[in-house]
Amino acid sequence: MPIKAFIFDLDGVLTDTAEYHYRAWNRLADEIDVPFTREENEALRGIPRRESLLTLLKGHPTTEEQLQAWMSRKNDYYLEFIREISSTDVLPGARELLEEIRAAGLKSALGSASKNAPEVIQRLGIAHLLDSVSDGNSVERQKPAPDLFLHAAGKLGVSPRECVVVEDAAAGVEAALAGGFWTLALGPVTRFPVAHHILPGLENIHLQELLDIFSITDF
Ligand code: BG6
Ligand code: MG
Predict the structure, then answer these.
(1) Residue 103 CB: number of other CB atoms within 10 A?
(2) Percent of the chain with pLDDT strictly greater than 90
(3) pTM to 2 decimals?
(4) Coil, strand or helix: which one is 64?
(5) How many helices (H) and strands (E) does the chain have?
(6) Ligand 1 atom at minimum distance from 51 CA
(7) For atom 14 of ligand 1, which residue has the closest CA?
(8) Residue 219: what pLDDT?
(9) Which of 19, 35, 90, 162 could cross-link to 4 by cystine, CB 3.0-4.6 Å?
(10) Binning pLDDT at 50, 70 and 90, where does residue 104 land?
């Protein structure tokens, strides 16, 4: 089946907001006196806000009211960071790839667990290059469930086998595989137990190269 579309994760794929999520969680963890390391943050990549907080708390007893207050405090810190984002913060190669996809008549969608995704793509100046946006408000079950990517494919009117999901998180790759999508994982090979193809990032990666890779890869 020919590839007709690409679904891009946002944080850590199109821009480096994964680092801002880490810094915001780290600041909260310091304030509430919970140990939190960069290594532990790896497990939070792609994971929604609430599950991230529960993981960070490591079973520390709390109330629903307190959880809500901490989630909101972390989001305030995150919003402070993203206020500074502009078109220069698109990761190398990402804008060029979106433009090539558009020029070739293929489709691009956003598939991000973040409720802040619409604001981030506006600030990056790439919203017009995306044919649809699925975000943290689009589905109930988040990654590693396949629902968000299935939602994106449905909006584009393509089947999972006609779509490549581009992800920087193991949970995101797991979600894409569960939905029957092709997966392009971005980051160190040690992060991904399984994926169809792994690259360090999108810099100097062109559409034709990706189409070639996925035309010879076995599902
Ligand atoms: C994902 C990030 O894209 O979005 C996670 O990788 C984050 O780190 C999740 O927790 C939810 O984001 P937000 O902006 O809704 O808190
Ligand atoms: Mg990500």
Answers:
(1) 9
(2) 95
(3) 0.96
(4) helix
(5) 9, 6
(6) 10
(7) 114
(8) 63
(9) 162
(10) very high
Cα–Cα distance between 48 and 41 in angstroms, integer?
Answer: 13
Choosing from 7, 8, 9, 11 the residue with most ligand 1 atoms within 8 A of its CB, the one to mutate for a pocket test is 11
Reported as a pLDDT band with limits 50, 70 and 90, residue 1 is: confident
CA of 40 from ligand 1 middle (Å) equals 15
In whole angstroms, give the CA distance from residue 117 to residue 132: 12
Q: What tokens appear for 152 in the block?
A: 């994106």
Domains of the chain, first to last: 5-15+90-215 (3.40.50.1000), 18-82 (1.10.150.240)
Quickly list DSSP for the chain.
----EEEE--BTTTBSHHHHHHHHHHHHHHHTT----HHHHHTTTT--HHHHHHHHHTT----HHHHHHHHHHHHHHHHHHHTT--GGGBPTTHHHHHHHHHHTT-EEEEE-S-TTHHHHHHHHT-GGG-SEEE-TTT-SS-TTSSHHHHHHHHHHT--GGGEEEEESSHHHHHHHHHTT-EEEEES-GGG-SS-SEEES-STT--HHHHHHHHHH---
